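Support case: user asked for a sample of complex input and structure output to validate their parser. Sending the pair below.
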Amino acid sequence: MNRDFILQDEIDRQHEIALSLHSETAGKRACVITFGCQQNENDSERIAGALELCGYEITDDPDSAQMIIINTCAIREHAEIRALSEAGQFKGRKERDRSIKIGLCGCMAQQSHRRDQIYKSYPYVDFVFGTDMHHRLPEIVKNALNAKKRFSFITDAPHNEFGVISEGMPVRRENRYKAWVPVMYGCNNFCTYCVVPFARGHERSRRREDVVAEVRSLVELGYKDITLLGQNVNSYNGGCDFATLLDECASFDGEYRVRFMTSHPKDASSELIDVIARNKNVAKHFHLPVQSGSSRVLKLMNRRYTREQYLEKAREIKAKVPDIAVTTDIICGFPTETDEDFADTMSLVREVGFDMIYTFIYSPRVGTVAAKMEGQIPKSVSNERFKALSDMENDIAQSLNDRLVGKTLRVLSDGLNKNGIPCGRSTQNKIVTYDKEIPAGTFIDVKIESAGAYALSGKVI
Ligand code: 5AD
Ligand code: SF4
């Protein structure tokens, strides 16, 4: 038996516990507050599914909830501060009503120094659970309802030994036409700046048949935009390679799109690029984080590719899939990054011509190799680099989008945006606004009439 999978007996036991709680949870509400990446959003949908199984009504409004779970992110300090300040919001409410239960989970909860801080400074947080404990939520809820003391459900095994996959627990999807489907969890790469391998454990893949069955049922239910998720999808090994899995997931009848997040450049294969080029249901968008354009910095980051190898990969993608959007992540101010290193990043960005860059200022993370490196860069320098990169990217994105004016794009409607304007997304994941309200989840053709750096605008035809 593969130790990565939870046995069916255990899943059945959790379902029984959930049912046994219904008399206690009747008429009560639960709220899940999410920080961080798509992986966390998907985890929250699973947490909400389990809470619903326990008998709670799910609400977006924490003030009306008797059970509040905060799903945290640890990727940068800023994310941690936001999650802690969210937890701080509930102090007064808890003082007025001791029966309210507050739990904290996610990547921050997985780190012992943060747990110590939460125990010391946030006495109104009742319980904490780790990133591989979601299948035990009914048991955790039962404890929370009955325990007199605070408690935690954390696997304290060394980082390379924890981590499990549970199939058969419910998911409460936030959206009725867009869905996340995890294909693998964890990461073995240990990029020297990154906390993920510590917070989410070693790589483990869901079974090919489980992933394909989930995607098939989503397509049958009418989902139109499905994102296969993993910290490094290219190292998927649940019965086939990722290119084959993607192809299979995108081969059902009907119009829908399959996306994937995230790829590591060292593992993004030519076969994967071929699948994107030939399968019409695979979205024409490749998010390929480069992190830096300097081979020296990439080495210090333990990325295991050079600037030239990245450029070669980007060239192959653009040559094989001419209408593709390529986006990336870049970290400014990694320890020892010189002006020359940063100039290399700027020139790589110009050379590739990214449709969008997610730029981050380096944030030292406890336990990572980079946090102990000499040559930490002053914030003022990182900020300047951040701004220079953002300004240049604005111009690049604008000129790439200008080329789309006059073209007709297939757009999946998102209904109205928060300003009441009809909007949707193209296969490249570009935001498109248009002149007519179209029900969310419908595909339409839009003739593009004008372009900005981060959105296009046109008429429905
Ligand atoms: N500091 C700044 N950015 C980081 N990222 C990951 N770790 C850090 C860190 N310590 C960025 C990387 C990654 C994205 C999800 O977050 O660019 O691709
Ligand atoms: Fe972090 Fe690197 Fe793994 Fe991405 S590949 S999650 S940046 S360690």
